[in-house]
Amino acid sequence: MKLLTWALAALGVVQLRAAGHQHLAVVRVFSTDEEVQLLEESGPAWGQTSPCAVKSNMSDIDLILVYSKDLDSNPAALQVVMDLENGFQKYMDMQNYNSSNVTTGTSYDWMKCFSGIHHMSAMLNPEQDVYDNRGYTTNKHWVSGPNAVFSKIMTEMFSAEPADMYDTFFLMEMDAVPIKSHWLDQFETE
């Protein structure tokens, strides 16, 4: 019986993939206090340029917040992340059950566009977390921080359970500000 269950589950996954169902992610990396502020400001800002018209029925799309260091070591950054995650949980509870046990967090209507909001810490040390905007001419390791974070993201994407959790992800820099609504719909289409 167990083998039959696994076979049917696998067939269901194959059929979902064949029907075009995808698991996508928008990945936002932040490191500095300024980027923590930008992340916090993106909550209300995305209300002005909603990521989607309606929640996709063809894809599961997650928002993944990646802190370059240890998130637990920065209370301000942790607070912003937890506000978004708790707000998302509260939003989903209200949509599904018309009530929620979550008492903290700010909910936004754009949260309907995502299947989940998650976070990870890249755990870079200060020597690794280098970004020198003056460029290569002044520091040959000028982008070692962003490169190391990208490497950690790729490792996580391919080593997480299941290993093929995401078909595609969009690395959305913190200074990327949507100017047109339904930008997430466009990402899904492309």
Which labels suit this protein?
190 residues; alpha/beta; four-stranded parallel β-sheet; 5 helices; 15% strand
Report on the structure:
The protein is an alpha/beta fold and 190 residues long. It has one domain (22-189). Helices cover 42% and strands 15% of the residues. The chain has helices at residues 2-18, 33-48, 75-97, 144-159, 183-189; strands spanning 22-30, 59-67, 116-121, 168-171. α3 (75-97) links the parallel β2 (59-67) and β3. α2 packs parallel to α3 (75-97). The longest helix is centred in the middle third of the chain and has 23 residues, at 75-97. The radius of gyration is 18 Å and the shape is globular. 21% of the residues are buried. Residues 1-18 form the signal peptide. Keywords: Signal.
